[in-house]
Amino acid sequence: MNRPVAAIAIGLLLLAGCHAAPESAGGAPASGPAARAVPADFSIDLVVRGGSRSGPIAPAHLRGAHYVLFADGSFHHGVAATPSRLPPRTRHLSREQVARLYAELADAGLADVDAGDPPVNATLTPPPPDDALQFLLTCTGWEQRWMFDRTMPVAAAGDEPIATIARHLAALAWAPDTPRPTPAIIPRRYDLGPDPYEVYRR
């Protein structure tokens, strides 16, 4: 290789190195367009828990709930804030919907692996005080796993960045701000006679 060609090659390598996106300590891009690219293994698990005096009459994202988004777009939602159980499947999100959710997560500073807390078992996390809300957000991406545990007074919860993510997830789950009323009509259960298989259980 002659000297001009070698000089050009070295110059291109240095230029590529200057434009490479910086990485965080966890290996994920720290800034630039690459930081907003949705990881192939991106998933979210958000548990919203309210104290005994938080009240059931509140916007959907400030009520007890459990949201789970898998990397394949499967989205689960349940009104019971039980971290140990997977809520029922609600819908399947498109790649565009997942990309918008991840962009909002990045804008809120919650897509940064280094900014998160060490992952813990959410079922062992103590509940919030009586007049507070707790958001347990666990994220997966870039072959990393990180968590945010945020507890705050109910009156101030709506202004927190993590509450905007809960609002986005509640909208994707079609959760209404007004709780659905409990049906007043008790369903009638018909007696279909004796169990035909009872004789085989003896």
Task: Chart the SSEs and their pairings.
Elements: H1 3-19, E1 43-50, E2 65-69, E3 74-78, E4 89-92, H2 95-107, E5 132-141, E6 144-153, H3 154-157, H4 161-172
Antiparallel strand pairs: 1-2, 1-5, 2-3, 3-4, 5-6
Describe this structure in words.
The structure is a single chain. The chain has 202 residues and is α+β, with helices and mostly antiparallel strands. It has a single domain, classed as Mago nashi protein (2-Layer Sandwich). Helix content is 23%, strand content 21%. The protein contains four helices and six strands. A six-stranded antiparallel β-sheet has the order 4-3-2-1-5-6. A hairpin with a 4-residue loop joins strand 2 and strand 3. The chain starts with a helix and ends in a 30-residue tail after the last helix.
Largest sheet: 6 strands, antiparallel
User: Helices and strands: which structural class?
Assistant: alpha+beta
- What is the terminal-to-terminal distance? 89 Å
The averaged pLDDT comes out at 79
User: In terms of per-residue confidence, which ranges show pLDDT below 50 for 5 or more consecutive residues?
Assistant: 12-22, 29-34
SS strand fraction: 15-25%
The SSE order reads HEEEEHEEHH
Report the radius of gyration as a whole number of Å: 24 Å
Helix content: 10-25%
How many strand segments?
6
Shape: globular
| Assembly state | single chain
